[in-house]
Here is the input.
Amino acid sequence: MAKVQVGIIGAGPAGLTLALILQKAGIRSLILENRSKQYVINRVRAGLLEQNTVDLFNELGVGGRMRREGDEHHGVYLSFNNKKIHIPFGEHTGGRHITIYGQQEIVKDMIETCAERGIEIKFEATATHIEGVETDAPSIVYTEGGAEKVLNCDFVAACDGFHGIGRKHLPKDSYQEFRIEYPFSWLGILAYAPPASDELIYSYHKNGFALLSMRSAEVSRLYLQVTNDDKVENWSDERIWDELDVRLDDGAGFKLNRGEIFEKSITPMRSFMIDNMQHGRLFLAGDAAHIVPPTGGKGLNLAVADIRFLSKALINWFEKGDDSGLKTYSEDCLRRVWRAQDFSNFMTTLMHKMDEHGSYTNQLQKAKFDYISVSKNYEATIAENYVGLKEI
Ligand SMILES: Cc1cc2nc3c(=O)[nH]c(=O)nc-3n(C[C@H](O)[C@H](O)[C@H](O)COP(=O)(O)OP(=O)(O)OC[C@H]3O[C@@H](n4cnc5c(N)ncnc54)[C@H](O)[C@@H]3O)c2cc1C
Here is the structure.
């Protein structure tokens, strides 16, 4: 039976970041990942990295390609009923900014670095249950190549995403669950088309929300608000482009660049979290404990923020026998999780079609937008949340 100091479930941003930080501190970990390596490095998801996240990837020595190929953004556009305003980041945040770099790219970079540094990742190895978390010797039972195996460890880090097994191993009475299912989804596309804007554009339109984002100078990432029962098959490429043109119109001749669409999917918009992320020697991080709608670009960044706390707490325990960080782990993470829940909810309810156009709710949205467009203080609130607060 194998033994490591930290058994990690999941080779997503959370699990990989944790393994790399621990390795730097001389702590041995092993990652179990139920998908194949090919699947994990091609999985298209987030693309917006906060300054804190970028700084950590650079400290870990995995940021080389991100610095070369990623795109720094120093502001964002918000548009409401075709009126577009710009929120600059730098002047409100002491020069902080965001970087656009695909999640699958940083995951690929981290997996390659793990291989170079001798961190073992077992792909197509599925954790099935976690045992002994109330003892000093927990273990992860997993299946690999049809055989059942056991990984013994001092601690278990469940970085296994929303559908993972980690959360199921917390005692039911140890947490409260919070959940919002929004009554709409995002139809997202990736297209070989140069982005028509240098920065992201969030747009409220009476037909629904649209977002212009990007992955590179050649690839646009675009989204449309659709109903929860809508299907990808209902959206021909031409219908998507036409609707994006309508919803992103700024009344001043703005036009999208069209190109071949090579990815099309529908993602439900929801928030979920639990208010306890640990039990005994088991610690949850990232989507395993919380998800937010992608409007605020926070999912991946929150996963990495959890790992900052978890890695520091584990290092202090292994190096000094100090368990204070482990004891306050949930509390430390939850401050930022709640901040991100609030900001994601704010961006979602400000920019989506929440009710009939012209309704009371819609007039409140517009009143908020009009306020943002004249208030430097409101602009600052959005800017500092968007790039990610340093302190919380
Ligand atoms: C379709 C989609 C689109 C998204 N778009 C955005 C976006 O635009 N912006 C944004 O900020 N966020 C977005 N997110 C959220 C963001 O991608 C996540 O917050 C981020 O991936 C969280 O990282 P993680 O490491 O916690 O979890 P994950 O990336 O989910 O990694 C968990 C890993 O654990 C593995 N695993 C699960 N169960 C087991 C098991 N039993 N045994 C072994 N391995 C297991 C999984 O295969 C996976 O590789 C999106 C998420 C999804 C699903």
In short: DSSP finds twelve helices and 19 strands in the chain. Residues 9-15, 32-35, 40, 45-48, 103, 126-127, 159-161, 164-165, 267, 286-287, 294, 297-300, 303 surround flavin-adenine dinucleotide (CB under 6 Å). The chain has a mean pLDDT of 96. The domain at 2-74+97-178+271-346 is CATH 3.50.50.60 (FAD/NAD(P)-binding domain).
